[in-house]
Amino acid sequence: MAQSALYNKIQQMEPMFPTAKGEELNNLAIEVIRQSAALGEKLPPQTRKGVVELVRTMNSYYSNLIEGHHTHPVDIERAMAHNYSHEPAKRALQVESVAHIDVQRLIEQKLAKNPDETICSQTFLCWIHQEFYNRIPDEFRQIETTDGDIKIVTPGKLREDKVEVGQHLPPPPETLDSFLTRFDDCYGNIKLGDIRKVIAAAAAHHRLAWIHPFLDGNGRVTRLFTLACLVKARIDGHGLWTVSRGLARNRTTYMEALADADEHRRGDLDGRGNLSNKGLLGFCTFFLRTALDQISFMSERLELDGFLRRLEGYVDRQVSFGELQSEAIYLLREAFFRGAVPRGEVARITGKPDRTARRILKNLLEKKLLTSDSERAPVRLAFPTKVAGYYFPQLYPEGVEMTEG
Fold this sequence. Notes:
By secondary structure, this protein is mostly helical. The chain has helices spanning 24-40, 45-66, 73-80, 88-113, 122-133, 176-187, 194-211, 218-232, 243-249, 251-262, 277-301, 304-320, 328-338, 346-350, 354-366, 388-391; strands spanning 142-144, 150-152, 370-372, 379-381. The protein has 2 domains: 10-301, Orthogonal Bundle (Fic-like fold); 304-391, Orthogonal Bundle (Arc Repressor Mutant, subunit A), CATH 1.10.10. Helices cover 55% and strands 3% of the residues. β3 and β4 form a beta hairpin.
């Protein structure tokens, strides 16, 4: 049974930040800042660009997986190339995945153009919802209410119905404006320091889900909003990690932590707000630990020696199958180190005659192991899904990772 409390006053959303006796939460925030900054410096910009594309696909995969929608990474990659399945259900999931990737890219572009964007505002949140729902299949816009009615979700529109979310009864629709204003005033405060901004990203993640401003799509909007928080606070590692992977791989704990933070205050020792301080503190701690775990995961995968060993191992395997020439590794290594390689240097790098060198390059481009913006532009390292399991082991769950050969 859902909680019977009626949330119609903004004071009922307090506390907005958890209070803690020790320094653990601050220390976690400091480590997120430090380690994400170090992660962003690991790769040349052009090489990093390719990894970021792979991470966007991974983010879409895991965010949708949290919602119970499973789309294989290979199918997501095909959809990005406009190669959709003829099977309606699979095609719909592909469209949904691409929608998530497109909106993530829009958020990144918006913040790059205007770093002062007010991401906690109702306008920005409705924009995320509108952009996402404008892109998804019609069948994903239909939801069944608790009364058994079928309703159509309007992109970018706040809900006009009362809803239940597990044991939680979110604020009624007529109060959403006031709750979202308080949300913006607190988490959008430009005077927040760096450490406070990191904690704000965690706390706001829960409080936005708690408000549940839309009829549907709140989970995805919350995770996309959180991505915007990390980008704006400059702790996203230049796009090289995603918290959604950690949340999805610990989905039960994630949902329990969200539910705990929904609870009312548990006595005089549980803060001074209406909601549980202990619950919010627990969620923020879980969130930041998850973030650190994901930063550490990608940092390990991008360590120079380890990555080059895996790259060489992949090429050796493909050479044994007759799919690549052994000299291909020189081009791939050079692209990794330099970020981009002019085509005129291919013969020198491979140590082969010009015609042979061009064949090696063509093969790598056809296999999407290298990519280029045009037929004459320099080439750079690419990260197609088929090699994700080799280059970045455990990027996807066991049984989902696709490797070649």
